[in-house]
Amino acid sequence: MSKTWKIYSLTLISFLIGTSESVISGILDKISEDVGVSVSAAGQLITVFSLAYAIGTPILMAITGRMERRKLLLYAMVVFTISNLISMVLPSYGYFIAARIIMALGAGVAFVTSLTIASKLAEPGKQASALATVLTGFTAALIIGIPLGRLISTTYNWKSVFGGVGVLGLFALIIIAFAIPRYDGEASIPLREQLVLLKSPKIATALSVTFFWVVGYSIPYTYIAPYLLQVTSISEKLLSIALLAFGVTSLIGSKLGGFSTDRWGVQRTLTVGLLVHVVALVFISFSASNILIVFPLLMLWSFATWSSGPTLQYNLITLAPSASGILLSLNTSISHLGMAVGASTGGLIVAKVSLSSITWIGALSVLLAAVVVMLWHKIPNREQTAVEKPLA
């Protein structure tokens, strides 16, 4: 197997992780009905996954820094695969919560290690392309994994979705064992030194934009299936199509966001993308009863949301090129922390206010991110001191 195909094989891992993490949003109503909990309680399955991922991944990566990379990837995927498989037979909601925590820890280590191995497999000067290839697995999860998960849960049951991810995980383990070469571990940078980067005002502000952006996205997206079914009164068949359309436009938005960043810069791309994100959510709030209007607005929301992703990552790399790996790792943790906060906040909104309120409340968080971006030029530029010190 060529190095190129080995890199593509790692995409399967990110696809499985992305599907396992996000598919809950597409089958939330099924889980709620089956285990006998409210929709808001079922949404906390995303909260616990994201929280465990955000907190556990940097700690585990620091602990396992010197471990041989293929072995670490195998161990992490074993944990991830087993936790998905046993989810099929767990008797209660509480046990599934515990499985989601273990699943998240395995997923976080497997994903970060996959990126590390991909960068080592890549030819000189092509590391960024290799990382982008692995990351397409997450996009594929939005386009294929989540709509397919909805279809499987409707045809069979929601637990079959995780069983399917587990079976594919076994296939991924075989590929890792026979196709991925061994790579020595590296001396990891202690968490204390990684957090020193947050002393930079611009880096801290950039990460705060990621946080508010993800919170504003996560509040409505976590409950997208019950929202469309109950508020918009969409049919089951159209729901799967809507989730597929959401995934496709997310890919288009991501590609255009990268192009726009190269052509018009970070601040302009983020400002426009975030403001369109806000407008889409607000318009969805006022048009929820009309499926002919909601459907294109849903696609506009997805497009605007994911146009900001590559821009935020590129901005972090340019702020501290010598610490790009650490910053991307911190950004991933902040993203999952935002997912956890968004899912839990959305649960409170659904339980205490109304399901129909999640879109405009999510819009407020995204608007806050847009305001921060528009004020970027007033932030002091002292990132160099914060970055160079821990890396010296």
TrEMBL record:
The keyword Iron does not apply. It comes from the Bacteria. PROSITE patterns: MFS. Its main location: membrane. GO terms for molecular function: transmembrane transporter activity. The keyword Transcription regulation does not apply. It is found in: Cell membrane. The chain crosses the membrane at residues 41-60, 72-90, 96-118, 130-149, 161-180, 201-219, 239-258, 270-303, 358-376. Residues 6-381 form the Major facilitator superfamily (MFS) profile domain. One of its GO terms (cellular component) is plasma membrane. It is a multi-pass membrane protein. Pfam families: MFS_1. This is MFS transporter. It comes from Paenibacillus sp. BIHB 4019.
